[in-house]
Amino acid sequence: MRHNKKFNHLGRTSSHRGAMLANMTCSLIMHKRIFTTLAKAKALRVYAEPIINRAKEDTTASRRVVFSYLQDKKAVTELFKEIAQKIAERNGGYTRIIKTGTRMGDGAKTCFIELVDYNENMLKDKAAKKSTRTRRSKKKDAGEKVAAEAPVAEVKEESVEEAQVVEEKSAEAEAPAAEVSDKAEEAK
């Protein structure tokens, strides 16, 4: 009987399942994101997160424990050198599962599983959100800028034309004043 054995066997024997999860974990460490089925991704998360957590403490013992699970020197060095530095402040939740729909052939639910700190698109979005204000103020500011720019341009054109008209009038006003002053000098 299977009482209290709740993990997904994935239709494989224990040795096959362990080898598959170890290979998937190595691929996840090396490529930072892999495409797989939802059931495998959930099983991989349970398998990989304790291994990634072990990498926070860089000791010979922890390297040996991780190597006993993964059996890949390149993946172990990548995990302890690069990934351990990025996850140092994180307490858990090192992976993210993003569902992508169903597979055409058999209708299996598919997804991406990725390391959280390595998704550059989402990290850029976080940085952009932190540096800007709320959405309402953006819309309001953008509307004010567009509204403010258009009338200013029109006012500038009108003010140039008005300035020319004012200069012509002042020149005409100065001319009679100059004639009057000339006549006043002649009268003296």
TrEMBL record:
Which UniProt keywords are given for this protein, alphabetically ordered? Answer: Ribonucleoprotein, Ribosomal protein
Q: Which GO terms describe its cellular component?
A: cytosolic large ribosomal subunit
Output the Pfam families linked to this UniProt entry. Ribosomal_L17
Keyword flag Chloroplast: no
| InterPro entries reported in the protein's UniProt record | Ribosomal_bL17 (IPR000456), Ribosomal_bL17_sf (IPR036373)
- Give the family per the record: Belongs to the bacterial ribosomal protein bL17 family.
Q: Which PANTHER family match?
A: LARGE RIBOSOMAL SUBUNIT PROTEIN BL17M, RIBOSOMAL PROTEIN L17
What is the protein name stated in its UniProt record?
Large ribosomal subunit protein bL17
Q: Organism, per UniProt?
A: Candidatus Caccoplasma merdipullorum
Encoding gene, per UniProt annotation: rplQ
